[in-house]
Amino acid sequence: MPLSPSEIVQLTIILVLATGLFFVAYSLPQIIGSTVLLVMIPVQPIDTRVGSANVLLAFVIFLAMLLRRGEVRLPLLPQILILLFCYLLSMSFVHPALYEQHAIYMIALVSAILVFWIAYDLTFRYRNLRGLIAVLLTMNLVVIVYCAIQLYVGPGQEVSFFGIEELTMERARWDSRLTGPFSATGLTSEYLVIMVFVILHQVFFAKKAWIRRGLIALAAVDLSFLIATGNRGGFLTLLGGSMIFLWLFRKELGAQRVVKLLISGAVMLTLVSVIVVSYTDFDRLFSRLADTTFEEGLPDTRQVIWPKVWKKIKQRPLLGHGPRYNMQGARQGAKYPGYEYEPYPHSLYLFLFSTVGLIGFIAFMNFALRPLYQCWQTMSLSKLSLEYAAFAKTGVVVMIVFLIDQFKIEFLRISFVDYWHFIFALLGIFIATCDRARSRALQADY
């Protein structure tokens, strides 16, 4: 399919941006290029059929890293190779007319894996965890600015940078639910929940009172935007994750501080909820919670689609129907041989079973569960600094929150590729932190 004039403009902008970032990454210290890449993850207004600018930028930064060093760490390489093999195996059984669409998906997946390795490398380049977490907090500020613009312009309104049509922000949904930069209320809410726990970790180790107050204010803003998304699953995941967080940190905090945190957290959540519901147009969360119904154990929004997807899974249970769930334009009526449009399942696990089958599901979970396993092992190491042990515990909370929240949405849609990069970067950071912590613990034994 030939590119439209608009897509040609978008790709030209991407190439110019990629060229500039390559020279930055190659000429300046690697830490700069990698940091810029991570901070830019949420703000990619350019999105074409071949992916957002982040896809190309990931390849550019990784290439610069290879050229500068010649040898780089590639953690979980066996698991990743097995994962890619399963995806290619599933792709080999689709209709030949769909190869191009699935190949685009595979390129995006490889870019996410490169971000995983770049984030792993970046973790070792920062001398301490505070510098690395500052990168995540800077990204969080970018997301807040993005969400604030959406909140200001209101539901359904479009914002273009410099009046250029090809540089357009994601618009908030018409039904008064904030989408944020990740194209979906569910993903933005999940991101905000994850960052609340990262911020809480940093509050414990901030030495200056004004920094602690600033971090608490940042968490309050994240919570307010979480309310504005109107996402029920994200809100409930926050509540459940908070209980896990307090339980894991019960010894460090003590019973008295746990009670104080529970009370202050409830007060903060109540205040931001009142502000958002009373003074913005994004007031849907609590009415949606009140209207939630269940039938045979399924929530109201999943009662039709989940059984339908399960029937599709049973058609090809081992290898699935190919890496990409929906083809470009299929929802608008585009026809492809051997393919029919199906609504997304709104569950990562059903998505994996449907696309790459049982074999691909096992391969993906073997990769995705590794950070949880390593963080769980690391947090109980003897002779480990309190800060590293705490971050490993935070990693356990974040991974549990992510895995539970993905029951109700799939982050692996091709249109969500920027969020792939965030999640894969987070996995790389947790794996690298655990490796670094174990190395320090071993050195302490000598």
As a percent range, the share of helical residues equals: 55-70%
**Rg calc:** 22 Å
- The first-to-last residue Cα distance is 62 Å
Overall geometric form: globular
Overall average pLDDT: 89
Q: Can you count the beta strands?
A: 4
Low-confidence stretches: none
For the biggest β-sheet, the strand order reads 1-2
Order of helices and strands: HHEEHHHHHHHHHEEHHHHH
**Helix count from the secondary structure assignment:** 16
Q: Into which percentage range does the β-strand content fall?
A: under 5%
Oligomeric form:
single chain
Secondary structure category: mainly alpha
How would you sum up the major sheet?
2 strands, antiparallel
**Overall domain count:** 3
Short note summarizing the structure:
The protein is an all-alpha fold and 446 residues long.
Molecular structure report:
- By secondary structure, the protein is mainly alpha-helical.
- It has 3 domains: 1-72; 76-125 and 308-446, no CATH class; 140-302, no CATH class.
- Helix content is 67%, strand content 2%.
- It has helices spanning 5-27, 30-39, 53-69, 77-91, 99-125, 129-153, 185-205, 209-229, 232-248, 250-279, 285-290, 305-315, 348-368, 370-378, 386-405, 417-444, and strands at 47-48, 51-52, 294-295, 298-299.
- It has a two-stranded antiparallel ribbon with strand order 1-2. A two-stranded antiparallel ribbon has the order 3-4.
- Helix 7 (185-205) packs parallel to helix 9, helix 7 (185-205) packs antiparallel against helix 15 (386-405) and helix 14 (370-378) runs parallel beside helix 16 (417-444).
- The protein is globular and about 65 Å long.
- The mean pLDDT is 89.
